[in-house]
């Protein structure tokens, strides 16, 4: 096990194993949303595990980045949404710097999608609807409201979460006050199609007023 992180061991691991799908950027739509929906559907059809999982990157007040996996809630009119407590680390960072980057990766297809843009906060009603659609265990965890805080031990975690889940089950209309739906309003979207010969295709969309400009990028 000790050698698994050596340069030799890591270099021996396969990447971009084909066959990978072709991507002709000349056939891409004028806007990125339809292409994203197509690629997401193809990832689902290919059996990619967690195809709606995405890396959310934010920065702290000093400009230092942090990243974590979150779930895509929906895509609508150039926006991609996720949800979290506003008191979490990501919530605090977004309150200070309301910009974010999202990264989707579907290795079975050799595809990435990168999104960047400002972040908007949904109203309390929309956030409540999202919260109430979650399972009792998930609602209970959000009701605790101490994500990223120091933890004494796992027994304390289990006790607090059990109590919170029981409360969520007993009060099905209860909504965590910090629960928030966030929308990343894309002003840049890049589609990256890998190639076994490293002749990758990168199609970059940039918002230009009410429309989008497209260009190819070198791999």
Number of strands: 10
- Helix count, DSSP H or I runs of 4 or more residues: 6
- The backbone outline, from C-alpha atoms, is globular
**What is the fourth-level CATH superfamily of the domain at 21-125 and 179-217?**
Electron Transport, Fmn-binding Protein, Chain A
Residue windows where pLDDT falls under 50 for at least 5 positions: none
Note the main attributes of this structure.
alpha+beta; Pnp Oxidase, Chain A; 219 residues
Give me a quick take on this structure.
The chain has a domain at 21-125 and 179-217: Electron Transport, Fmn-binding Protein, Chain A (Pnp Oxidase, Chain A), CATH 2.30.110.10. It is 29% helix and 32% strand. The chain is built from 6 helices and 10 strands, in the order ααββββαββαααββββ.
């Amino acid at each position: 096990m000790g050698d698994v992180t050596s340069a030799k061991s890591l270099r021996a691991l396969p990447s971009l194993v084909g066959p990978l799908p072709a991507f002709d950027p000349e056939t891409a739509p004028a806007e990125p949303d339809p292409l994203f929906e197509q690629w997401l559907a193809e990832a689902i059809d290919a059996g990619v595990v967690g195809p709606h999982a995405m890396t959310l990157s934010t920065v702290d007040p000093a400009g230092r980045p942090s990243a974590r996996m979150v779930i895509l809630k929906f895509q609508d009119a150039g926006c991609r949404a996720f949800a979290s407590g506003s008191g979490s680390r990501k919530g605090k960072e977004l309150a200070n710097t309301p910009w974010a980057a999202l990264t989707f990766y579907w290795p079975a297809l050799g595809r990435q999608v990168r999104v960047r843009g400002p972040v908007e906060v949904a109203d309390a009603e929309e956030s409540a609807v999202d919260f109430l659609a979650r399972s009792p265990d998930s609602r209970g965890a959000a009701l605790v409201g101490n994500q990223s805080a120091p933890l004494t031990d796992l027994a304390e975690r289990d006790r607090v979460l059990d109590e919170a889940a029981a409360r969520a089950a007993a009060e099905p209309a209860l909504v965590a006050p910090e629960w928030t739906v966030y929308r990343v309003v894309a002003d840049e979207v890049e589609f990256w199609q890998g190639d076994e010969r490293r002749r990758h295709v990168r199609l970059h969309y940039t918002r230009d007023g009410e429309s989008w400009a497209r260009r190819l990028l070198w791999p």
